[in-house]
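Tutorial, part two.
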Amino acid sequence: MNQRNDTQHDPPESAAISAAIAEQTLWIEDGNHTIIHVDPAFAKSLGRAPEDILGQRVDGFLDPDSPANLGEARDPMHATSPSHCALDFICPDGGRVSFTVCISPLQNGDGERMGFLATGSEESNVSTVSLDQWEGQEEDASWGLAIVRAEGGLIDYAGRSFANMHGYTLKELNGAPLNMLISGNDGDEFQPIAEALNEKGHAAFDTVSVRKDGSRFSVELKVHLIRTRRDGRPFYVVYMADLTERSRDEKARRAAARMEAVATLAGGIAHDFNNLMVGVLGNASLLKMKLGDNNACVERLTEIESAGRDAGKLAQQVLAFARGGKYRPRVVSLNRLVDDAAVQLTRVHPKARIAIQEFEPSIWNAEADAAQLTEAIHNILLNALDATSDGGDIHVRTDNVEVGASMAANTPGLEVGNYIRLTVEDKGCGMTQETLDCVYEPYFTTKKDARGLGMAAVYGIAKNHQGAIYGESQLGEGTRFDLYLPATKAEADETSVRTPQEVRGTETVLIVEDEEMVASVSRNVLEYYGYAVLLACNGREAVEMTQEYGKEIDIVVLDMAMPVMGGAEAFPLLRAAQPALKVILCSGYDLDESAQRLIDAGASAFVQKPFGPVELCQEIRKALDN
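Running the prediction step on this input gives:
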């Protein structure tokens, strides 16, 4: 049981109780001893509303047998120093409450007395009150209220939230020992609280409470010791808050921070890896071109190219987790993408059994990168297939979801709005909660031959599309994943883009690249296909060369991430120097917001590394011809 010192998440009424304990301004009266201000907590201690006291004289609320006369504290009239007295006040129910009061004269600038200020506190740390002010009090959603007899520890009153929190009815809790809920046994777990209450009158602790079914949950307790005005009997006012949800939120925040750190590291590694693979693919292709088809080494070079492309795909999966860029966003139909992915899965894995496919006929569309979204769908289906390798069905569903304020508040990652949802549920082996917590991390896998990048890519793709992925699983019972994507009312774009086959040219290309190997292989490839090539190692140098060469430069291949001046900063300066200049963007990262803004501003295309020589030349040719 841990004592708490924080004041966060205060229950209703506790601020008022605490204020009654601390020394405070009680009332202010004018020169005629009429009360012109009263502290609400002081009024409550007297069992009255502030409006019942304002405009009255304090004398009217005093016990005639009070040990000190208020008039003595105000006189002599010429006194200017504070006076102290002990006063007993009469409450409407006949009870009494005692205060130690300091009466201080109030003066104007001329030294004339204008009234009196009364400060002080109750003579005891323990409030004397009527229990009626708590019983029946409406509880808020996060705190449960109970009133407990200090002698015996039996519950005298329990609020509905308090009862629901423990799974009991109000009748079952009436007269039950509080200790039954705190410890679940006959031990005196409440003793440390009682000691603190006797010393200070209030206490706050973290402990464990027990439900009716025997399950335990962490709670925060805020307790105040009170005495009834009528007979002075002691009671505990107990506020209890369930810490389970608060702990879950904190766990989610820590997991999100961990994922963000892993994503940053993974993204940086994948970016540099992509730059290196440009050199591998480019040099392998150049050697093949120069050796010709009949050379015995060509087969080996083809294998190098194939391995390089596979390595590039792995890097794309890492980037999908880390940055998840939308490479070519367009309006797509989720039903069509899911259906195509399911057909492909069963074609490659004939034993795959998708028992149920329930597609919402009026499914909304999404604005997404079709290739990345297809990859995410494929990875979720493949995960379900692996889970059901020993048998079990896979259910696939799509539907429309309207996320309101309540759902958004309880579902991290979703905002208020319309979403489309893909649900993939399997009846396979399932996962422990510990495994499920790690399933989106790169290279985490429970399979011997897997790389652990599939669900990491899904996480990144969903996040970058302003969506989310959620999983639920029970060991031995199966797993369910829900993929949410923001919906759009736009019609799906079913058109395809043709890639020109001709790649040769005679135009002048400016390559802006800080990686020497990437710049060198790009230059060699372009020159092989007939282009004239200029090189710049950063954006500033590219701007200077564009100003110098003018219209002699036909097109620029501009890297986004460079020292001195990157692509985002250089692009407007290049266009200012030559307004009609065509610019192709490239990066080891996916198309992010920075690159997308340049596309919207007129950049011709975006090419992601690692790109092959032909791919780069095709994009250049396409931009020049358009």
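The first strand starts at residue 2 and ends at 3. In part three we will examine how such features are distributed along the chain.
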